Amino acid sequence: MFQYIVLIGTAVGFIGTYAYIRETIRGKTKPNKVTWLMWSVAPLIATVAAVSDGVRLAVLPVFVSGFGPLLIFVASFVNPKSYWKLETFDYICGTCSILALVFWGVTKDPLVAIIFAIASDGFAAMPTLIKCWKYPETETVEAYMAGLFAVLTTFFALKKFDAIELAFPIYLVFANSLLITAVYIGRSRVLRISK
Question: Which residues fall within 8 angstroms of residue 29, CB to CB, at 6 or more apart?
Fold first, then answer.
């Protein structure tokens, strides 16, 4: 029964994605294309790895955490005002993210795949984490809050409570919490500076 709470989390995750896409199309939110592209790839790989190991409903929020960013990445091309200039650091993180995915391709072990997917996702997150702190006005924090809620529902659907089921959801809790914190610290810093 409790495992169906994950469906509520999935719906909330899509609401957060919708809010981010809406603000991106309006030009208020400026997604880092490297981050959002790589954020779509790593969770989708983790989803495939988990499903190949027999995980079913518990992987749904992880899938949503990959599919949502793919939609945001596509939306980032709709409004030229939502453009975020990529710098060398963004490309370095993107390259490290891609390399982690290549290393996953060398092995067929689901746990190793998830570890490299987490590394890939973490490298992809760095540019946006820094942007959240420096330029919080270019982010929609509600998307990260919805993502955090969605991934927390995963824990109601776990069956084995092993590393394959737990690793990516725990990472996503940590990553979303960091992003939310960075936006709020960034906003308070901007308010202090403007006073």
Answer: 20, 23, 82, 138, 139, 140
